[in-house]
From TrEMBL:
<dbReference type="InterPro" id="IPR027417">
    <property type="entry name" value="P-loop_NTPase"/>
</dbReference>
<comment type="similarity">
    <text>Belongs to the RecA family. RAD51 subfamily.</text>
</comment>
<dbReference type="GO" id="GO:0090656">
    <property type="term" value="P:t-circle formation"/>
</dbReference>
<keyword id="KW-0067">ATP-binding</keyword>
<dbReference type="Pfam" id="PF26169">
    <property type="entry name" value="HHH_XRCC3_RpoA"/>
</dbReference>
<keyword id="KW-0233">DNA recombination</keyword>
<dbReference type="GO" id="GO:0140664">
    <property type="term" value="F:ATP-dependent DNA damage sensor activity"/>
</dbReference>
<dbReference type="InterPro" id="IPR016467">
    <property type="entry name" value="DNA_recomb/repair_RecA-like"/>
</dbReference>
<keyword id="KW-0539">Nucleus</keyword>
<dbReference type="GO" id="GO:0071140">
    <property type="term" value="P:resolution of mitotic recombination intermediates"/>
</dbReference>
<dbReference type="GO" id="GO:0045003">
    <property type="term" value="P:double-strand break repair via synthesis-dependent strand annealing"/>
</dbReference>
<protein>
    <recommendedName>
        <fullName>DNA repair protein</fullName>
    </recommendedName>
</protein>
<keyword id="KW-0963">Cytoplasm</keyword>
<dbReference type="InterPro" id="IPR058766">
    <property type="entry name" value="HHH_XRCC3_RAD51B"/>
</dbReference>
<dbReference type="Pfam" id="PF08423">
    <property type="entry name" value="Rad51"/>
</dbReference>
<keyword id="KW-0547">Nucleotide-binding</keyword>
<dbReference type="InterPro" id="IPR013632">
    <property type="entry name" value="Rad51_C"/>
</dbReference>
């Protein structure tokens, strides 16, 4: 979308033309101080510009609530409590982001979905494998095999003979991307080939922020965000073309003022990384955080966590306490909890 289509004061429009800042995407890529320094506009003019650009992006989501309500299928997590929160799981046709601090259980969700997608549609899957792209840590292969061994326990709603017939480990395709160039090659070549052959119907990127934070300095914000938009555009095209859910796991950054935390839960002291440029590419934003307490079930215990919906066109802004068990992530309903 072009900046000329925004309803702006002529002074602001003239400043944008002078510095050749033409697209709305370029505006949302920049921070307020950078825009002020680049255009020479006042703080109030810059705030007007950012507000108008963000509103324009929100008016053009990759998929609408109406589309979701008319049968756009997705991938369930396999836990009825969490699937109710997400109204059936991850939707197709857009990017779902899961953000949170280290140790909150984000990778558990990615692994769980990589197995759930392999079930037939009547059991909440898409009947194909998953492409799991690692950008920072090594792939947790031991935990994947543990989850596979516990699928009968997690998916008690599925006939055991069907669970045992699925060769889960053969259909999780693992890629490691050490830099942005290799990540882009992975998505444009490897992912496209797997999707075109029907071998995968889920893409997981773990994590999206790692490479963008590592490869750019503070002064390189414009180039960084242009690369970010190229990356998100590639994911959108793959998701739309092949009706494929995309999960991007994201890191977080500290929030020093609650008045500036519009991109995360109002009670949180952290916000998803990569700012407004990335937020406007995401259809569904989820966040996970650890709570003060433990939850006990039989001989197992787990740190208590919370999965929250920050925004989505088809979901209420709500949350659910969760715990990580041997068989995977589950919502906490009736087990004994011991909060500190």
């Amino acid at each position: 979308m072009n900046c000329d289509q925004l309803l702006l004061h002529p002074r602001v429009s003239a400043a944008l033309r002078r510095v050749q800042l033409k697209s709305v995407q370029d505006v949302v890529c920049a921070s307020a101080p950078d825009l002020q320094r680049l255009t020479g506009l006042s703080n109030s003019d810059v705030q007007q510009l950012i507000t108008a650009a963000a509103a324009a992006c929100r008016r053009h989501p990759p998929i609408t609530a109406q589309q979701l309500q008319h049968g756009v299928s997705g991938v369930r997590l396999g836990c009825p409590v969490l699937d109710r929160l997400l109204r059936g799981g991850l939707p197709v046709g857009g990017i779902t982001e899961l953000a949170g601090e280290s140790g909150t259980g984000k990778t558990q969700v990615g692994l769980q979905l990589s197995l759930s997608v392999q079930y037939p549609a009547e059991h909440g899957g898409l009947g194909a494998g998953a492409l799991y792209v690692c950008t920072e840590d090594s792939f947790p292969i031991k935990r994947l095999h543990q989850l596979i061994g516990e699928q009968v326990c997690l998916r008690s709603d599925v006939p055991a003979d069907l669970v045992n017939s699925l060769r889960f480990s053969d259909h999780v395709y693992i890629e490691h991307a050490a830099d942005l160039d290799s990540l882009q090659v992975c998505l444009t070549r490897r992912a496209r080939l797997l999707l075109a052959r029907g071998l995968v119907r889920l893409i997981v990127v773990d994590s999206v922020a790692a490479l963008f934070r590592a490869e750019f300095q503070a002064d390189d914000w414009l180039e960084r965000n242009r690369r970010l938009l190229t990356f998100s555009s590639t994911l959108h095209h793959l998701s739309q073309e092949f009706s494929t859910p995309v999960l991007c796991i994201n890191q977080v950054t500290d929030v020093f003022s609650q008045s500036h935390n519009s991109m995360g839960p109002s009670s949180s002291t952290v916000s998803p990384a990569l700012g407004l440029a990335w937020a406007n590419q995401v259809m569904v934003r989820l966040m996970m955080r650890r709570l003060q307490g433990m939850v006990i079930r039989g001989e197992q215990s787990s740190a208590l966590r919370r999965l929250e919906v920050v925004f989505a066109p088809h979901l209420a802004r709500d949350g659910q306490d969760t715990a990580v068990w041997t068989e995977g992530l589950r919502g906490v309903e009736s087990w004994t909890s011991n909060r500190k």
